[in-house]
Amino acid sequence: MALTEKFKNRDLDILRNAAKGEIFLDVKSPKLFKKVRKYYESNGVIFSGDPLDDYEIMMDCLYSDLQISVSDNFLSSCKLSSSN
To answer: Which of 9, 25, 63, 77 has fewest C-beta within 10 Å?
Structure first.
């Protein structure tokens, strides 16, 4: 399921702001942060265990997926790039 199908429009607005660096998702909406992390983990994204690195991985994935979802409506290959 694509990110834009999984989350509500209100949540997607928050996620876009986080991906653009306008807010810190883990501070602004900790519950949404946990849901998004779980979403990416279930879609194969491998996190490092370091909170700062993991946040950057998530924001890169969000930015990529929100850009791709608008035009192509599918999950990006972010999980492949984050496992390197």
So the answer is: 9
